[in-house]
Design brief:
Blueprint: E1 4-11, H1 29-40, E2 42-48, H2 49-56, H3 68-73, E3 75-79, E4 92-94, H4 99-107, E5 113-117, H5 120-128, E6 134-140, E7 159-166, E8 172-178
Parallel strand pairs: 1-5, 1-6, 2-3, 2-5, 3-4
Antiparallel strand pairs: 6-8, 7-8
InterPro entries: DHFR-like_dom_sf (IPR024072), RibDG_C (IPR002734), Riboflavin_Biosynth_HTPR (IPR050765)
Domain Bacterial bifunctional deaminase-reductase C-terminal: 3-172
Pfam family, one: RibD_C
Length: 179
């Protein structure tokens, strides 16, 4: 059975929306190695519609960007109730039917892990369904005050801390699993 590994850049006050607007001043080799370690353990990406559209709008047009070979070459599973096709980005497959059951079926397959980046709504749903095996939070030492949060209220998701590392920038890499 495949593991599902979710990774998010997140602020101290739980905001995970639009990390491109606030996270780069904290990015260094330590964080790059942590992110690379997640990707190296996976052979499939799982993305919600918004993240897929954002990534599909960048990576195919920038084949020489660092990491483009991984992003473009990796198999991508896309969860969306509004997209008709995902032909705009190579190796993308639109998951059919109930997203929770589709992810459960994908996890039952053989191979390396399935990794996620972003996709807050999908991440919340999969955490509640107890399908996330590892939640990697790269907690940045900044409070943003507003923006979409990983937990937006009402959820009860017990987690257990598996490991934590503090980077020289003050970013905390906390890895959680199901409690």
């Amino acid at each position: 059975m495949k593991k599902l590994i979710s990774g998010l850049f997140i602020s101290l006050d739980g905001v995970a929306e639009a990390p491109a607007d606030w996270h780069f001043p904290y990015f260094n080799d330590e964080m790059g190695a942590a992110v690379d370690a997640i990707w190296s353990r996976s052979d499939t990406m799982l993305l919600g519609r918004k993240s897929w559209q954002e990534f599909a709008g960048f990576w195919p047009q920038n084949p020489d960007a660092e990491g483009a070979d991984v992003m473009n070459g990796t198999r991508k599973l896309v969860v969306s109730s509004t997209l008709d096709n995902v032909d705009a980005w190579l190796n993308s497959t639109l998951l059919e039917g109930d997203p929770i059951e589709a992810v459960r079926k994908a996890k039952a397959g053989e191979g390396k892990a399935i990794s996620m980046s972003g996709s807050l709504t999908l991440t919340r749903s999969l955490l509640q369904a107890k399908l996330v095996d590892e939640l990697h939070l790269l907690i940045h030492p900044i409070a943003l005050g507003s923006g979409a949060r990983l937990f937006d209220g009402g959820e009860h998701v017990p987690l257990a801390l598996l490991s934590s590392t503090t980077f020289s920038t003050g970013v905390l890499h906390a890895v959680y699993g199901p409690a």
